[in-house]
Every structure is written in structure tokens, then in C-alpha cells.
Design brief:
mainly beta; Immunoglobulin-like; 2 domains; 4-stranded antiparallel β-sheet; 49% strand
């Protein structure tokens, strides 16, 4: 998988988080460069636009400044605490498991109640939306039998918060 494809997943993830209000001012996109220099962090409140070309990722900031990162120089992108370059601690995350069966069903398991499950294609099209009431569902099954093989994103809303999982239907 090329860095451009991976970065496009990250951008889609960022857009989903921004659109759902799941991102708050202390969370930041952190760019770790290959050269080992200090990671650079950008909060969603500071970013006006994220774009990428064949060779780089560009950030246009609300104050008019910009930053560009060549794909060859980006080691990884993470989410963490703004201004620190430190990834969010694992204890602040919650574990949701999602996998695809050979029959094309997606099984999602959560330690807490699942409130909704949205399946998206990598280009952001909504494939399905499932809402659960009663707060007792800790395992859900969604069918992708009629969907083509490929990569999909699951937006899972639970009592603990919202998480995005990538799944591959083969």
C-alpha cells in the first residue's frame, strides 16, 4: 500500500472525526518525519484545509500559513495530545473489534453498548447505517455480501465514544 493511499485513509479519518464532533481542541494530527526531527502537531481548530498531491501532504492553516510534507519524508501520522508530539495514551482508548467473515458479514464487538454503526467506502460514500436502541448491543453484524471486495471504514459509536476501524472485504 502506498503512502498516498495510507495518507488518504488518515485524511478520511480526520474528516470523519471533524464531521462528528469527536475531535476536541486537545487532540492533534501529529506528523512524524523520517529524519527524526521533532514531530509537528496540528489541531483541527487550526487547520483550514488538508490536501495532498502525488508527492506531498499540505496543510493550509486558518492564520494563512501553510505546511507541506513530502510523502517520502513522512514516517507516520498519529493522533495525540496537541503540542506534545506524544501519541494519546492507550488507557484513554477503548477496544472495539471488527472483522469480516468469509460470507461477507462484518462482526463488531465492543466492551460497551454499541449505539450506531456506519459503513463507508474509502471515498466517503455511506454504504449502510445501523442504529441500536436499548443500549444492550455489544455485538453487531452488518452484511457486506452485496458490496464489492475492497477497503471499508466503520464508524462505530459506543457509550465510550466514537472510533473508526478499517476493514478489508476479500
Amino acid at each position: 500500500m502506498t503512502k498516498k493511499v495510507i495518507l488518504s485513509f488518515c485524511m478520511l479519518h480526520i474528516m470523519l472525526l471533524l464531521s462528528t464532533g469527536a475531535v476536541h481542541s486537545q487532540v492533534a494530527l501529529i506528523v512524524h518525519e523520517v529524519d527524526g526531527s521533532s514531530p509537528k502537531s496540528f489541531t483541527p481548530d487550526d487547520i483550514r484545509r488538508l490536501t495532498f498531491s502525488d508527492v506531498n501532504l499540505s496543510l493550509l492553516m486558518r492564520d494563512g500559513s501553510s505546511s507541506a510534507f513530502a510523502f517520502d519524508n513522512v514516517k507516520k501520522l498519529t493522533f495525540g495530545v496537541a503540542g506534545t508530539g506524544i501519541d494519546s495514551p492507550k488507557e484513554n482508548r477503548f477496544d472495539v473489534i471488527a472483522y469480516v467473515t468469509r460470507q461477507g458479514e462484518v462482526i463488531v464487538q465492543s466492551p460497551g453498548a454499541i449505539l450506531s454503526l456506519t459503513t463507508l467506502s474509502v471515498d466517503g460514500r455511506v454504504i449502510s447505517v445501523e442504529r441500536y436502541s436499548g443500549g444492550a448491543e455489544t455485538q453487531c453484524i452488518v452484511s457486506l455480501q452485496n458490496a464489492p471486495n475492497g477497503i471499508y471504514l466503520l464508524r462505530i459509536e459506543t457509550e465510550q465514544g466514537i472510533t473508526i476501524k478499517k476493514i478489508i472485504k476479500k
